[in-house]
Write a structure and sequence with these properties.
- There is one protein chain.
- By secondary structure, the protein is an alpha/beta fold.
- Helix content is 45%, strand content 16%.
- The chain contains 13 helices and eleven strands.
- It has helices at 22-38, 60-70, 88-101, 116-122, 129-145, 182-191, 202-218, 240-251, 264-267, 287-301, 303-308, 317-331, 347-364; strands spanning 5-9, 43-46, 75-82, 106-111, 149-152, 157-161, 175-178, 194-197, 228-236, 312-315, 335-339.
- An eight-stranded parallel beta barrel has the order 1-2-3-4-7-8-9-11, surrounded by seven helices. A two-stranded antiparallel ribbon has the order 5-6.
- A hairpin with a 4-residue loop joins strand 5 (149-152) and strand 6 (157-161).
- It is globular, with a radius of gyration of 20 Å.
- It starts with a strand and ends with a helix.
Length: 366
Amino acid sequence: MSRIDFALWDAVGGYGGGNEPMADVYDRHIRLAQEIEAAGWHSYFVIEHQNSPLGRITAPTVFLTAVARATSRLRIGAMMWQLPFYHPLRLAQEVAMLDQLSRGRVEFGTGIGVHEHEFIRWGVDYYQRAAIAGEVLELVKRAWTQDEVTFEGKYFKFDEAIPQPKPFQQPHPPIWAAVHSDAAIEFAAKGNYHVSQNLDTDAVIARKFDLYRKVWREQNHPGPMPRIFLQRQVHVAETDEQAHAEARQYLVAREGGAVPVGGGPIEKTRIGWGSNARGMGRDSERPDDKARGETMRLARESYDYNLENGLAVVGSPQTVIRVLEASRKKIGYDIFCTNHKIGRMPADLVSNSIRLFSKHVVPAFK
């Protein structure tokens, strides 16, 4: 088998939890990070959302500091920190502190966010999010590599700021771009950033990662090519039949999709999902986003569509190993990130899936 590094994407809180104290939820997920470290996983990721039922990581750096102090080798990060919501120098300092406290284990995942309602509720211009994020990222890099930062942009202005501390990793932690559109893929390649994807079909992602590699080579960047990260929903059981029986009802459901949009508690609020039912405002009608919306619709309606297009990997450990080896050759990733918490799947099924993946799949690709 070719080498693949494995990451776990942890939907902390998610649709579950009920009346369970969040302190207990956080502790349980910190123990999960310890378990996957012992099993030889490469990294552990969460995602930031604001005003959302999709998780309870509204301050990724705070939670990841707790994870860092409970582990010693596991790399940690958010995929992604939502850059438009941050004061850039405070973000730079917080992530640098996390990198120091973890002794250089941070993976800095960046993105602009996709859900319009999150921006409306915080009074941030959704349609300026890419431009705001561009300034934030530029300032974070300056704060990590310069003794002082003087900057005058459209959204931020600093006069001889002196950000501290600097990161443990030099010159800075790996920077990831969580991307979907061709324009974002090209931005990541030109910036020499590592790149991640999760929502498109295998065929579409293979084309986009080929575009990334092409544009990256055209830039004549020094050093090795950045890493390529693919996230998928995964369910493993002792046999193929058992795995499919367990996964089917949770995968083919509104909340079972990779990005469940529409319905739920958000729909019942005054603002709802924003100005478009697909949750992305006017951007919902852009060709690439519209195509991705159709992919998500089909995934909610057809179990076989998920499997045939790589959106989910379901089966026994042996089947999962075969599927991953084939998809790695087709797509060309070197980090595979698993999401085992599919919609409202019960905790015991999720735990068994992670246990089997750790025991059988992770060692097969060392």
